[in-house]
Amino acid sequence: MACESSAEFVRLLEKEGELVRIAEPVKTDLEITALADREMKSPGGGYALLVEKPVLPDGSVSPFPVLINAFGSERRMALVLGRPVEEIVGEIRALLQVEPPRSFREGWQLLQKGLALAQSRPVRVENGPCRERVVRMGPSAEIDLLRLPVLRSWPKDGGPFITLPQVFTRDPETGKRNVGMYRMQVFDGTTTGMHWQIHKVGARHGKGYWARGERMPVAVCLGGDPILTFAATAPLPDGVDELLFAGFLRRKGIPLVRCETVDLEVPATADFVLEGYVQPPELRPEGPFGDHTGFYTPVDSYPVFHLTCLSHRKDAIYPATIVGKPPMEDFYLGTASVRLLFPVLQATFPEIVDLALPPEGVFHNLAFVSIRKQYPYQAYKVMHGLWGMGQMMFTKILVVVDAEVNVHDTSDVLFHLCANVDPERDFLFTRGPCDSLDHAQATPNVGSHVGIDATRKLPAEGYPRPWPEEAALPEDLRREIYARFPRKERAARP
Fold first, then answer.
1. Residue 244: phi, psi to the nearest 5?
2. pTM over 0.85
3. 291 catalytic, yes or no?
């Protein structure tokens, strides 16, 4: 079931028993974080929370409820997607099988073409619910950013941060749209930071406007169809339109309306639309911010977003998340992205069986890959290939295991890593781009990576002895014995 607004999504979550309403007043300063962090670290991701009376720093109650942890479980992500993940994966595989790609770039190009043919192109409309209340900024503005229940998540954060923005920009040369998710520190009622790092598409667009000496139009959407938030977080490469991807997942085009004060189009069903501009090369100190790494990222200079118009639905709900030491809500968003985009990866590297990004690695720090090994140093070939793919270039530790190892079971991976690895022989070190948020590197944005070949070794890889067989009981024997002798469960202690 597709939901066109946060209010519809809330009703669906409530119907499915996935939502807890909090009627008592709760402060946007740290208190909502405490509730959300407890839920996110509960088994299975806990519940989505609807804070009905968020209390602003001035002591007043915001007119907009806060929805948080809405994406924080496998079941809630299935509700966002509207159909089983494997069904969508099958459709993507079918698109790629029309003409098998010869490279990863060709795979994305073929997927882009297939998405367009699937009648998922955005549809332009004259008006939409996002315009039910329109406020242009100025002395008589009745509402601005300070009336939104923007959270300050952690004690040493530099201020409140918008954490689930869909940021719309356009390439000044090609006109191509990008929808990214970049945190926005609220400085006052009409200005925020725009945290696009040097590797991000938004930053590249900004450089293009800077070179032209032009003001950069920017629009930020909050809420609406939850598939739009998911698409903004997905690590799609250049050339794959996030709205086209969202339309493919919805099996219909996303309706778009023109903004009031900038030359951009945005989803007509958004809960909030923040219109404005970035004026390159204007920068302002932003941070600190308690990030998904589990540590505070320090103060640094980033572009400034100037708000010119704020519009919203009459029943608008403010969407938020917090990030920090895992497990957190973003793990489930990232896992869904990996599962959906895996067919493109597999079309380029057919030996890959599975891929997992464990929560402890906070996405970029650790990846497990299983392969069907056929020839010497095939694991090294896969390592080099993955480091050359989009945001996989940030992966600090990449572990390659054999096909039968369950990469989603960290204990199983560590067992085979410890058993199969000779560190001097099986560790591959290289240097390359690193995540801007990685504090371990001495030089920002640049650092080392290690690939670990934990597969069984072949003679041509310098292993002359026979590789030992792993000891295991036959599965049919296990099933027979376990059926004959059911295990007695230990009684719970008082």
1. -65, -40
2. yes
3. yes
Residue 476, H or E segment: helix 475-484
Based on the fold, state whether residues 197 and 142 are members of the same structural domain. yes
Would residue 341 count as lying in a domain?
Answer: no
Question: How much of the chain exceeds pLDDT 90, in percent?
Answer: 66
Number of domains forming the structure of the chain: 2
Provide the pLDDT for residue 488.
81
- Which residue from 312, 301, 163 is spatially nearest to 229, judged by alpha carbons? 163
The verdict on 48 and 115 lying in the same domain is yes
What's the pLDDT score for residue 258? 96
Confidence of residue 106 (pLDDT cuts 50, 70, 90): low
Q: Which of the pair, 169 or 199, is modelled with greater confidence?
A: 169
For residue 402, what is the domain's CATH number? 3.40.1670.10
Give 446 or 322, the one with higher predicted confidence. Answer: 322
Q: How does 329-356 read in b/e, with b if 16+ C-beta sit within 10 Å? A: bbbbbbbbbbbbbbbbbbbbbebbbbbb
Regarding whether 185 and 271 lie in a shared domain, the answer is yes
User: Do 83 and 23 fall into the same domain?
Assistant: yes
**Residues 251 and 158 reside in one and the same domain:** yes
| Residue-wise pLDDT tens digits, 134-163 | 888 888 788 899 999 999 999 999 999 999
Is the same domain home to 143 and 251?
yes
For 7, residues 6+ apart whose C-beta sits below 8 A from its C-beta are: 271, 313, 315, 316, 317
Mean pLDDT, the chain, integer: 90
Same domain, 298 and 219: yes
Q: Is residue 164 part of a domain?
A: yes
Q: Is the dihedral of CA 291, 293, 294, 297 positive or negative?
A: negative
Q: What CATH code is carried by the domain that includes residue 200?
A: 2.30.110.10
pLDDT at residue 394 in the model: 86
| Residue from 225, 271, 291, 330 carrying the catalytic annotation | 291
Range of the domain at 422: 349-465
* Residues 176-204, mean pLDDT to the nearest whole number: 91
Residue 327 lies in a domain: no
Residue with tokens 């572990």: 399
For residues 142 and 10, the model is more confident at: 10
Q: How far is CA 5 from CA 65, 69, 128, 228, in A?
A: 13, 16, 12, 10
DSSP 54-121: EEPTTSPBPSS-EEESTT-SHHHHHHHHSS-HHHHHHHHHHHHHTS--SSHHHHHHHHHHHHHHTT--
63 within a domain of the structure (yes/no): yes
Do 270 and 366 lie in one domain? The reply is no
What pLDDT shows up at residue 390? 75
